[in-house]
Amino acid sequence: MFQHDLFTVSMSNCEQFQITIKNDTVAGQQVQERIVKILEDLGYPPRDVFSVRLALEEALVNAIKHGNGMDPTKSVQIECSISQDLARIEIEDEGEGFEPEEVPDPTDPANLERPCGRGLMLMRSFMSLIEFNDSGNRVTLEKKREQASENGDGDASEDESS
């Protein structure tokens, strides 16, 4: 199998790894589950875990499907660093890249029927930071850990009993 870790560091409050996976959605899902488990083990609130899972799935599918064009000879590189306060994931494909600012706004009435741009919009909505390298074939996703509210559930919304 073409999947391998280049390094893995595990400390009580920080997890880091770098992995290259074959250009396959199943391999992408395995990495996604590994990252979700780390977040859960570090006690990230469910809302943060959901946000990272959603953005990560979009980014991996984009790399595999759009970046690498489903080409089985290509691979995807993932670097992950998760501490108590911040999850940082970088995903790089072997494609030519794209210009993020040229992706149509899916909320524009003229684009409501078009499927493009929705994943990018979701990633931007759910993550604290999303950046692309100059060539557009590497995305950096960051999620700052949400601070628990007074009721301890991690939901920063106002008290609904009023």
Structure in words:
With 162 residues, the chain is of the alpha+beta class. The chain has one domain (4-144): Histidine kinase-like ATPase, C-terminal domain (Heat Shock Protein 90, 2-Layer Sandwich). It has 3 helices and 6 strands; from the N terminus they run ββααββαββ. It has helices spanning 25-41, 46-67, 118-126, and strands spanning 4-11, 14-22, 75-83, 86-92, 129-132, 138-144. It has a 6-stranded antiparallel sheet, with helices on one face. A hairpin with a 2-residue loop joins β3 and β4. α1 (25-41) packs antiparallel against α2. The chain is globular and about 45 Å long. 27% of the residues are buried.
Number of strands: 6
Any low-confidence stretches, pLDDT <50, length ≥5?
150-162
- Which percent band covers the strand fraction? 25-35%
Number of domains: 1
| Cα shape | globular
Query: What structural category characterises the helix and strand content?
Result: alpha+beta
Gross CATH architecture: 2-Layer Sandwich
CATH class: Alpha Beta
Number of helices: 3
Q: Helical percent range? A: 25-40%
Q: Looking at CATH, which topology would you report?
A: Heat Shock Protein 90
Radius of gyration: 17 Å
Brief summary:
This protein has 162 residues and is an alpha+beta fold. The protein is built from three helices and six strands; from the N terminus they run ββααββαββ.
